[in-house]
Amino acid sequence: MTYIRLDKLREYYKPEIPAVLEENYQVDIDSSEDLPPVEEEIKRLFPNTCHLPLLTIQESNGSKRNNMRPLHVGVVLSGGQAPGGHNVIAAIYDALKAYHAASRLYGFLMGPGGLIKHQFIELHKSLIDRYRNSGGFDMIGSDRTKIECVEDFERVIDIAHRLDLSALVIIGGDDSATNGALLAEYCAEKEEKLCVIGCPKTIDGDLKNRFIETSFGFDTCVKVYAELVGNIQRDCYSAKKYWHFIKLMGRSASHLTLECALQTQPTIAIISEEVEAKQQTLDDIVQIIADVVVDRYNRGYPFGVVLIPEGLIEFVPRMRRLINELNEVLRVNEKNLLIVKKSEVVRYIASKLTTESAEVFLSLPNEVAGQLMLERDPHGNVQVSRVQTEELIVSLVRKELKKRKERGNYDGKFSALTHFFGYEGRSSMPSNFDAAYCYALGLTAVALASHHANGYMAAVGNLVAFPGEWKPRGVPFVSMMHMEEREGRRLPVVKKSLVDLEGAPFRYFVEHREQRARAVDFRYPGPIQYFGPSAVCDSTTITLRLEHDLSAEEDSEEALREQH
Ligand code: FBP
C-alpha cells in the first residue's frame, strides 16, 4: 500500500473560487445596499475616507484586460494565528501573476513590527506552493504591533516608495483593521499611491457585520474544538464519573463557545454576553452550575461537560470593574511594584483598589489574582488565555457543593477535570471552507488593489452557498468604526461583534439548553474531513447556517441515504 502524508497532499488541493473572480471582472460601486451611517466624530477624524462607497466585483462584459503595468503589493499577517492565512497570501500571489507576470509580492516578516522595521522578503512560487492549504502563519510570521502614529505611517510610506508598492494587504482582526483604517486615512490625506486593504481574520469570529459574514479561521478552529470536546464527551459518557470544565479560546466574544455548543451539545455552556446582559455575578454562574450538578446526581448522572468562554471574567460586571481598576493601578504603580515582595503583591495591589474591587480581588485564588495582573497586550487587552477561569469556576462550584452538603441538600461526589482548548485549533490545517474562503479573500484583495481601492476590507458574501456562488465585495473600513473607551482614552476603532442575544444562533441554543442540561448523552462531531461527501467536507458552521435562515440540522434520513 502507498502512504501519502495528508499535509503533502493538501499542497495540491485547489479550492473552488467564486465564479466572478474566475473570468474578466470589474469593480463597481454597489448601490444595492446602504452602508450604516458613520458617527460624526469618526467623520471628523477620517475626512478623506469617511465617504467611501461599498464596492462590488462583478463579471465584465468588456474584452479581456490587457494590464500594461505590473502591480507591486506588500502583505502582512497581524495578530493571532488563524487557519487559512497562507491561502490568502497564495491567492494574492496567483492573482498578481495572472494580472501581470512581472507583478511582485513582498511579505513583511513577523507582523506589523516587521513592516515598521522594513523587514521583508519577496515571495516566490516555490515558497508559496509549500504553504498552500496549510495552517499557521509561519510563512512570514505575525505580531501585535500597533500602527498608530505619524512616525509609523511614515515608515510604511517610506518602504512603499522603495518597493514601489501599489497596495498593502493587512490580514488581521478588529485591532489590525483599525491600524489599516488609520494608515489608509493617512495615505489618502498625503495623496499617496499606496492603497491599504484588509482581510478579516480571527478565530474569535468577532470581526463580522452585515457585510463580513464571518472572519476566516473561525470555521476550522471551532471544528477542531468541537472534535476535542466531542471526544471528551464520549469519554465522559463512557466513564460516567467526571465533570469536565472546558475553557475555549475567544478573547472577548463567545462565538466560539456558542458554535461549539451547537455542534457538540454539552450539558452547560456559559455565554459571556448573556452574563453581562443579565448582570450576573460569579456566584450566579456557580449557582446555575451547582443546580445542574445536583439535579443530575439525584437522577443518577454524576457527570457532565461545561463550556466556558475564555473572556468570561471580563463580562462579569464586578470582575470587569476590578480589571479596569487593575489596569490603572498597575500602570500607576509600575515602578513601586518592582520593590514589593512577591508574597505581598496581591495585598499591596488590593490596598490601591476601591473597597468593592479589593474584596473581589482578595476572594480570588492566588494564581488567578496573579494571572489578572499579567502584562496587557499592546492593544491594552488582559491576556485572558492565561487566566485559569476554568479552575476558578471549579473551585467555586466545589465550595458551593460543600455548603449544600453541610446544609444536607446534597450528598454526592463531585470529581471535576479542567481543560483549555486554544492553541490546539488556532494553527490547524484549514477546513475546505476556510481554504476556499481565504483563497477568495486573497483574490478579492487583488481585485480591490487593481482598482486602487484604498481603505477597504475585502469581503466575500453568500458563504452558505457553494464557493462558485460567493459574492466578493469591498467594504470601507470606516463603515465598521465607532468611538470606544480604551485605556482611559476615547479612540476610533473597528467595532468588535459580540454574540447577538436576539440572533438566531443564540436563540436556538437557548431553546435547547434545558433539555441539554438534563440529557444523558452528547454529540460527537469527529474530526474535520477534507475528502469525501461534500455535505460533510464543505459545509460551514451552524452559526452561519442559522444566520442565513437555514436549518441547523441537515442529517435527515433522506440526506444520509443520498450520500450513500
Ligand atoms: P486575534 O484577535 O489577533 O485573531 O487573536 C485571537 C486570539 O487567538 C484570542 O482568542 C486569544 O485570547 C489571543 O489571541 C491569544 O493571543 P496570544 O497567543 O498572542 O497571547
Please outline the helices and strands:
Layout: H1 6-10, H2 19-22, E1 25-29, H3 40-45, E2 55-59, E3 72-78, H4 85-99, E4 104-108, H5 111-116, E5 120-122, H6 125-131, E6 142-143, H7 150-163, E7 167-172, H8 174-189, E8 195-200, H9 218-239, E9 243-248, H10 255-264, E10 268-269, H11 272-277, H12 282-298, E11 304-309, H13 312-315, H14 317-332, H15 334-339, H16 345-352, H17 355-363, H18 366-372, H19 389-406, E12 416-421, H20 423-426, H21 432-450, E13 456-461, E14 471-476, E15 481-486, E16 489-494, H22 504-518, H23 534-537, H24 542-547, H25 557-563
Describe what you observe in this structure.
The protein is of the alpha/beta class. Helix content is 45%, strand content 15%. The strands form three sheets. Strands 1, 2, 3, 4, 5, 6, 7, 8, 13 and 14 form a ten-stranded mixed β-sheet that branches. Strand 3, helix 4 (85-99) and strand 4 form a beta-alpha-beta unit. Helix 9 crosses helix 10. 49% of the residues are buried. The mean pLDDT is 93. 1,6-di-O-phosphono-beta-D-fructofuranose is lined by residues 79-80, 82, 173, 202-204, 249-251, 310, 383-385, 426.
State the major sheet.
10 strands, mixed
Shape estimate: globular
Q: Please, what is the oligomeric state?
A: single chain
Low-confidence stretches: none
Tell me the radius of gyration: 25 Å
Beta strands, count: 16
Q: Which whole number gives the mean pLDDT?
A: 93
Q: What is the strand content?
A: 5-15%
> Kindly, what is the distance between the CA atoms of the first and last residues, rounded to a whole number of angstroms?
25 Å
Q: Which cofactors or ions or other ligands sit in this model?
A: 1,6-di-O-phosphono-beta-D-fructofuranose
* Residue share in helix: 40-55%
Give the helix tally.
25
Structural class: alpha/beta
Binding site for substrate: 202-204, 241-242, 249-251, 310, 423-426
Catalytic activity: beta-D-fructose 6-phosphate + diphosphate = beta-D-fructose 1,6-bisphosphate + phosphate + H(+)
EC number: 2.7.1.90
Keywords: Cytoplasm, Glycolysis, Kinase, Magnesium, Metal-binding, Transferase
